[in-house]
Amino acid sequence: MSSKQGKTSAVPKFSSFKPKPKAETVQGQGEDKTEEPKQLSEHPVSEKRDRHRSARDPSRHADSTRHLKLSERPSPREEDRDGLFVYDKRGDQLVRRYGGINRRDVPSYRRFGSGRVLGIDGYMRIDPTGSREEFFMISYRESRSVLSSERKTLLAKGGYYRSQPIRIRQEKLQTVSGSEDFLSLKPARKRKRDDDESGDSLSGDEPSYRSIHGKSKKHEHSDSDVDYASDASADRGDWRVDDAVHLKSIELSRRVREHAEDIDAWLELVDLQDTLLQRSAQEGRRPTAAEIKSFADIKLSMLQQACSYAATDSQLEQLQLMIMREGSKIWDPKTLSKRWDEALGKHGTNFPLWREYASFQQTRLSAFQYENIRELYAKRLKQLETLVSAKESHLVRLQIYEEMIYVFLRATRFISDAGYRERATAAWQATLEMTFARPPTPPDHADMTVPSSFQEFWESEVPRIGEEAAQGWAAFVRDTSAQEPPEPKASELPTLPSTRDGYKAWAIVERQKAQAATNPARTLDDGIEDDPFRVVMFTDIHDLLIYFPTEAISSIQRQLLDAFLIFCQLPPTLCPTGTTQDMLQDDFLNNSGDFGVDEVSSDSVPGSEEQIKPPELSHNYQQINITPEIFFPLPHWFKALTKIRDDIPNHQYQWIAITLKQLVRQFGNRELGLFYLAFEATNDPGSGKKTAKALLKQDPTNISLYTGYSMLEWARENKDVARNTLAAAAGLPAILTHDKVSLGIVAAWMELEDCNLPKSISQICVLSDSTSTASILESPAASTTEILKTRHFLSSNRDYLLSSGDAANAVIYAEGLALLEYLTRQSNKEPSSGSQGDIWSAISSITTCSDELVSRSLGDSPAHERLLQSAARLLYYHARQGPFRPGFMREQLTKYINLFPRNTIFLSLFAWREARLSIDDRVRSILDKVVLTKRYDCVSSRAFAIQYEARTGNVHSTQAAFEHTLESEACRNHTGLWISYIRFCHGRKELRSKAKSVFYRALQCCPWSKDVFMEAFATLVRDMDSSELKSVYNTLSEKGLRVHVEMEEFVEKWRREQKERDKARR
Description:
Blueprint: H1 23-41, H2 44-56, H3 58-70, H4 95-98, E1 124-129, E2 132-137, H5 152-158, H6 194-198, H7 244-258, H8 263-280, H9 289-307, H10 313-327, H11 333-346, H12 351-362, H13 370-389, H14 394-417, H15 421-436, H16 452-459, H17 473-478, H18 502-515, H19 538-541, H20 550-567, H21 579-584, H22 608-611, H23 628-631, H24 650-666, H25 673-683, H26 688-698, H27 703-715, H28 719-730, H29 737-753, H30 757-768, H31 784-804, H32 807-824, H33 839-855, H34 862-881, H35 886-899, H36 904-912, H37 922-931, H38 939-952, H39 955-967, H40 975-986, H41 995-1005, H42 1010-1018, H43 1026-1038, H44 1047-1065
Antiparallel strand pairs: 1-2
């Protein structure tokens, strides 16, 4: 190894200065040969493997001969071969996949100095994190406790992000000798001393001293952190040549170079970088932080170049939005804040850009203040109000009104999450009063200023919408003395907790106070003097209110009602496209509810009972097309509503229920009637019949109410009542043809669920024939002629409506035709039994209609999604009733998922029959490739991925699903997700040590949520010391979030009372 040890020097030498062979060298070779059998015997398996490979490949035999010759060099020192040290220049290939080395390969040791690094002034530490040791930097004079001394540690701990550096390996130039049968297009490196280097090859019997371990192999001396799976990969040539993604990248690069004004090509090229990022990551791992940052830098450069060629303001605004999103991954907070000011100065009226800016300001823990964010929303509403007054186009004004609804919803959701729930409720009460209970507008009132009479109505404290005996603002204007304020309410004393922990007791009392303060109080109510925020004055909410012009109400009331349902954490039903869809994808709005990971499956192999378990039919986060069979499901189908009465405070539930009742029955919103009936039937099953009769009496021609009530009675086993209800609806004199067909489909499904196939055929044939006088109660057996006539009637109407562009009604006939084909055809192409029909013919009929919708650019329409949901329902029924081929069901659901990747029904049924421990996990594959892509990523899909891992995986795979969800842009600020993740980690002993760090990360991403802060005093109260809990409380108070009870005073008083009780017991 070294000349100082008396050994021959092993320093590499050039061939032109070769020394003559010496006797000592020959002698050394002889000594090494005597030890050669011993070295080879230590690896008998490797020797046999090499011998076997050399027999197949002559080049391998030559390499083995070369290694035997190289082993004749001087051997290393004896003490280096004692097993403690090994030469490894390539590293373990599994380190990057699993994020660290195998702990079993590391001898046990104890670190001296409490993790301090020698020579460093204490701001670098090596601390254990679970089973590993992590190296991180802390701020100056920061103590070991994260929240014990200074609040700077809250930012440092939460902002820590693990990353891995990578280096780009330089591409080696091709060497061409001139004897090849091709012409090289790559420049060859200039060679020097060709004659000398040619003599440096391993020819002859002389040993080579080029390396102390023999001739260097490929990648052996690379200092890159990237692993190489195989040396043979270099022999495959450049894999990018035939790759479609890189060919598309080359084509787009050529397009933007030749036609720089083509902004669409620029945007497509930028979006393609995400695909290249996923492809660049090695198999078995996701892109690292360094790779994400590198590709963000590339996209940022492209976007900045595209800005110089943008010709319109809309193109500039779109590019600026993408620049800010990519820049947030690269720029520091100070630079990012400066860039935001510049962007808003140029494009301040652009709504998507402002929404991104509002999210940026709301998620900055270091600069977050409640009043500042509230003022941000109020200024935007005022700006939109000024902007709409300057617009003359009716369509432009409606678009601005929808933006105002969106901002109002974001503002009220923010206020409620910050703890001021009564103010958010009051803002919605006022807006609904001014929209649906307004008096006639004076002729001279043309702007959007709130009339002074509404302030008088509010300050009078008479019952408002959502409260018993409320008559509305219009009734107050007609007669101010006709209404009186409600009777004063007595304050509810909180139940004293039984715990001795003062902090835990404070959290319980604080939560009870918050649940009692969901609705605004009156000045005469008890306990108001202790909490002045309980009474909401008009001046507290006037800058957030929206007063729409009378002529615009009919156009925007559906969007406003959907926004109200989203605020109440209920599914919107009235306007499934446009602004409502944007609201559903906003993680600042749809953020309440558990992710359903309480039960995590074990690693045991599932038995036959688990394989036939029905799919999950109810989800807290779901995205489906709302239809009557979803609102009032039969026992074996998905549900749109879940019972919320026991999950929210009683005052809040009563306000929601009374508000829905008044909007439908008192203010005449008949479109909301079906939802109100489903809400009452779900949360108060005993009142369903009474509510249905009252609604039908008010609106006797509403077919959806008849349909919903009949399904409700059928699910309760009142089948005769259900049939009578459908018969009454079918006998209405002014019923439309497509409404009659939809009633026939409902009646046929009811009979099909009873496995009465002949009667199901009769229901379709009777109600599909407009000239028939037979009643649904009679339902005579259908003849072959009637079946043929019904088939022609349904198919012809379907085709006619498709050609005329009426997709919504065309789908009704397509559903009826598919059901008729299922009941009457006999293709024998799929297995079936006596209680099953011909699923192949039914799906073929639906596929024909689906292809026609796609060809007419209606592939993403709600009508198409409804059609495919009916197909999924038929597939699930067929699978439940008897034999079926899983491959056929999987093939159809795969098509549906590719068309609608966010649909929860398709995902749930696709995962239903998949093998849990299969080698090729199809569910994970379709999630990664289709569902969880950047274009379709949403909260409901991420929730499904987590729940799937919780059911079929283990604790660690579920944790990985949580981490991947939090890395996505669609869910990183979702408060419900962070709270579920904290509780998930704390509830598993393998992850309990990580729960606190997850909590700090949650504060970084959701600093406006009081519920996230309260997790420290509920879930993590035993894992934090007093100083940490005090620091969390101080941060909560300083940020301006709502606190009902002062913690320090309460804890001191609680401890003093506990001591007195202990003394009294003695």
